[in-house]
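Let's study today's protein:

:::
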Amino acid sequence: MKKHWLVICVILGACSKPDPRLQEAENHIRAALKDGDSARIKNLRVIEKHGVQDGVVCAEVNGKNSYGGYEGYKTTSYNPNGDHVNIDNDGNDSTLKDICS
């Protein structure tokens, strides 16, 4: 029975604990938006590169504008070292694209 449980855990990935950096990043990203509670966040992931000790968290974020309409998904990063959220508002931030790709 233990073998079956191990196989199920490996296949579903249900045995690993969620990375606490993801929740921290989501909280900071939501706080940086006009209406963070309504934001749609997908592809939240930790990127371990570019010499960042604790990893940068990247995501695609769709937030509402001042008129209440969604703006479309934008590449977004959160750096826990600098406690900084970076949103690629115009889609031309090559540094952000390089980090999150």
